[in-house]
Amino acid sequence: MIITMDRKITEETNKNTLKIDEMNALEMVHLMAEQDHEIQSGIKNALPYIADSIDLIVDKWQQGGRVFVVGAGTSGRIGVLDAVELGPTFSIEPERWIALVAGGKNAMWEPLEQHEDSSSDAIKELEKYHFNHHDVLIAISASGSTPYSVAALEYVQEVSASSISISCNHQTISTRLSNVGIELIVGPEIIRGSTRLKAGTAQKMVLNMISTGSMIKLGKVYQNEMVDVQLINKKLVERAETMLIQLTNHSEAEVQQLMTETNNDIKLSLIIAKANCDITDARKYLSKANGHVKKAIEFATNR
Q1: Dihedral sign, CA of 284, 290, 294, 299?
Q2: Contacts of 246 (CB under 8 A, 6+ apart)
Q3: Does the annotation count 85 as an active-site position?
Q4: Phi, psi dihedrals of residue 159, rounded to the nearest 5°
Q5: Is 238 a catalytic residue?
Q6: Please, which pLDDT band fits residue 11 given cuts at 50, 70 and 90?
Q7: Within 10 Å of residue 279's Cβ, how many Cβ atoms?
Q8: How far apart are CA 253 and CA 70, in angstroms?
Q9: Torsion angle in degrees (nearest 10) through CA of 34, 38, 40, 45
Q10: Taking the CA of residue 150 as centre, how many other CA atoms within 13 Å lie in the half-sphere pointing to its CB?
Q11: Sheet-wide strand order for 162-167
């Protein structure tokens, strides 16, 4: 594997912050906030590619594919953070959206950045999960040339699968190896090379967009409500009941009865209330709609 030395904006000196070490705390945070404005413009320019990424994932997901997010250091930890929250938020199986960080799970808590140079580790991890042409890989690397994530992208090409890359430099090798290359140009870091700052924030925001947008298109959101959330504590059950009261105009007692009948299944409760059908029909329409709750309600109301 040959990695070309592309011009790395993430490694340049930020001339606007050369005197940050002479500033008081208030001056520092003002400057940092000002620099963070570049994140929004970097993301705005990449929006078409972010949208393409969502469409790609949804297409593969509906065919039974999985999503793998790989990265080293800050980028890898961002991938893990996003993946871990998708289960409780959208009730997706943990084996369908998998985050891999160079150095393994310990790298979440320990500085194991030396593993970012290990291209073989990335391939071994993907092979362990039997990564195949049905799946999608999201490779995150601020530089766009990290050996760990680049090796993963090359492996994706070998098995004829689909890939997305998120980097913070122009015309990176990661982009060249990807079906969709997202380049977030946010300028040099406040502290040179510290990509946990602007680059990391931009990557986190975009990964949130991709995962959330994918879940919305898969029907796990009704209007702007989480209707596929795991009700694992009292607060979430109460939130679900309040949501159903607002969405259906049913009384608290009626909603609680629905939740009892459906074993706290928000989607089924919503379909029953909106379409005035029984639980058997609600399940049938939800299955017909591939789990997309709004489409299921449309099927039920037009029956």
Answers
A1: negative
A2: none
A3: yes
A4: -100, 10
A5: no
A6: confident
A7: 16
A8: 46
A9: 160
A10: 18
A11: 97-101, 67-71, 136-140, 162-167, 180-183
Tokens 């808590």 label which residue? 109
274 conformational bin, left if phi > 0, alpha if psi -120 to 50, beta if neither = alpha
Query: CA-CA distance, 279 to 87, in Å (whole number)?
Result: 24
Return the closest-CA partner of residue 183 out of 214, 142, 150. Answer: 142
Coil, helix or strand at residue 163: strand
Structure tokens at 183: 């380049």
* Model pLDDT for residues 69-83, shown as the tens digit of each residue: 999 999 999 999 999
User: In a 10 Å sphere around its CB, with 0-12 CB exposed, 13-18 middle and 19+ buried, how is residue 105 labelled?
Assistant: exposed
Question: Which one is catalytic: 22, 95, 113, 116?
Answer: 116
Over residues 218-273, the pLDDT tens digits come to 999 999 999 998 898 889 999 999 999 999 999 999 999 999 999 999 999 999 99
| Active-site option among 27, 34, 85, 252 | 85
Beta strands in the chain (DSSP E): 67-71, 97-101, 136-140, 162-167, 180-183, 221-222, 225-226
Q: In percent, how much of the chain has pLDDT > 70?
A: 94
3 state DSSP class of 296: helix
- Residue holding tokens 């938020």? 89
**Average of pLDDT values for 208-217?**
97
CB half-sphere exposure, 50, CA atoms < 13 A: 21
Separation between Cα atoms, residue 281 and residue 272, nearest integer Å = 8
What six digits make up the tokens of 53? 């990424």
Q: Tell me how far apart the alpha carbons of residues 23 and 178 are, in angstroms, rounded to a whole number.
A: 42
As a dihedral over the C-alpha atoms of residue 77, residue 87, residue 221, residue 165, rounded to 10 degrees, the angle is 30
Whole-number CA gyration radius for the chain? 22
What is the distance of C-alpha 110 from the center of its chain? 23
